[in-house]
Amino acid sequence: MPKRLKINTLLKGDLCGQEVCARGWVRTKRDSKSVSFINLNDGSNQMGIQIIVDTDIENYEAILHLNTGAAIEAVGKLVDSPGKGQKFEIHADQIHIYGNAPGESYPLQKKGHSLEYLREIAYLRPRTNTLGCVFRIRNGLAHAIHQFFQDRGFIYVHAPVITASDAEGSGEMFQVTTLDLKNPPATEKGALDYSQDFFGKPVFLTVSGQLEAEIFALALSDVYTFGPTFRAENSNTSRHLAEFWMIEPEISFCDLDDMTVMTEEFLKYLLHYCLEHYREDLEFLQKFYNKKLIATLEGIVQSTFKKITYSEAVDVLQKSGKSFEFPVQWGADLQSEHERFLTEQHFKCPVVVVDYPKDIKAFYMRQNDDGRTVAAMDVLFPKLGEIIGGSQREERYDSLLERIHAMEMNEKEYWWYLNLRRFGTVPHSGFGLGFERLVQFATGMDNIRDVIPFPRVPKHAEF
Ligand code: ATP
Ligand code: MN
């Protein structure tokens, strides 16, 4: 009995003429008078492999009743395929049926289904061509991210998921508690008695691993996190999830300029990696979803990112003559429509906007000498707007404390973060890349819900 091999390995053809074994799920089956044709898919590629089954096979009666979705094993000779669209096929000697599927009541039929429908059956959608392509690319990007950082001597750090600190200061956090919500314990003053909660104080799901990554950067020099983050923001957009994965490098002895250089190199590396390793999947997605996908990715890899200050961006937007839904005014945050105008229409390439007004950015960003901006950086991509947000961190104790006071934050909660500025402080910078935004861009999918296995958005937490 030959060893089971994945279909993408078999299709390399090295074993042509030999007995092979494939296992997977039936995508389609067509019966003619003398043979049946099965397209088998095991997730290792988009095309699957064709299995030819002669009518004189032992269990042909059962083969006739095989339906889309059935799980089988095919053993037989790998041969050159005379058919169009595939180089090799398996001429089966034996078919073992693990589990048939019910025919018409199987939720995935041969015809294409809408992405909305597939979201409702998220437990089956990885079996579709589209989601198969997306999740192979997602996996490849995760691998490439680790490779990029590991090749450069970065150390992978795992930030906690449960935390007491609100890194972004935006208050959009999910609380974690074991208190009985029907009968919560009260203090004498009538407030919620957190001393009885699991951790003895209020805690939340993390919105960012940055503050913890800084601790490690100030010991191990170059680090990155890659983990789940959570935001209880009530935004029902095609670019927001309540649970998403974030990559957060944190680099010591690095200023904003050095970091923007690395950021551009990083994004190009990742998209280049996709083009090199996932051509077949990209071609499928291009054909059905986004006619310019491959050219767009190639365009970014070959482009030079345009770097401008926030003030310059405001100027460009004000002089554009466009009527935006949100007015453009120095001091207001750039909205998605502004970001997209800059990258899609004005500069026609990725744009790095630096030096944002301090009042719209987080407390930890380093104050510039002008007294009104901070060393922040957002990377804007066509279709998405912001894909990366980062900054040089405030490494000066007095300036940091001043910001904490100015923003009316509780200085006591950040005691350790402040102490890092007293114990061997150094200039350091970092950014956050939303993993799903990257996958969305690389796959050309319009909705972020189609690039994460089980999307969590307001009012939806199925599966
Ligand atoms: P946006 O303005 O698009 O909501 P943000 O300014 O809130 O983004 P940051 O706090 O800087 O984003 O987070 C870093 C990165 O994480 C963003 O650049 C983006 O790629 C990603 N991100 C932020 N919020 C979400 C979300 N709700 N779902 C998916 N990705 C997100
Ligand atoms: Mn946001």
Summarize the structure.
The protein has 463 residues and is α+β, with helices and mostly antiparallel strands. Helices cover 29% and strands 24% of the residues. It has an 8-stranded mixed beta sheet with strand order 6-10-11-16-15-14-13-12.
Protein traits:
binds manganese (II) ion, 463 residues, 29% helix, binds adenosine-5'-triphosphate, single chain, alpha+beta, eight-stranded mixed sheet
Helix content percent band: 25-40%
**Count of separate DSSP helical elements:** 13
Low-confidence stretches: none
Tally of DSSP β-strands: 16
> What's the arrangement of strands in the largest beta sheet?
6-10-11-16-15-14-13-12
Describe the structure in your own words.
- This protein has 463 residues and is an alpha+beta fold.
- It is built from 13 helices and 16 strands.
- An eight-stranded mixed β-sheet has the order 6-10-11-16-15-14-13-12. The chain has a five-stranded mixed β-barrel with strand order 1-2-3-5-4.
- Strand 4 and strand 5 form a beta hairpin.
- The protein is elongated, with a radius of gyration of 27 Å.
- Bound molecules: adenosine-5'-triphosphate and manganese (II) ion.
- The site of adenosine-5'-triphosphate has 16 residues, from strand 11, strand 15, strand 16 and helix 13.
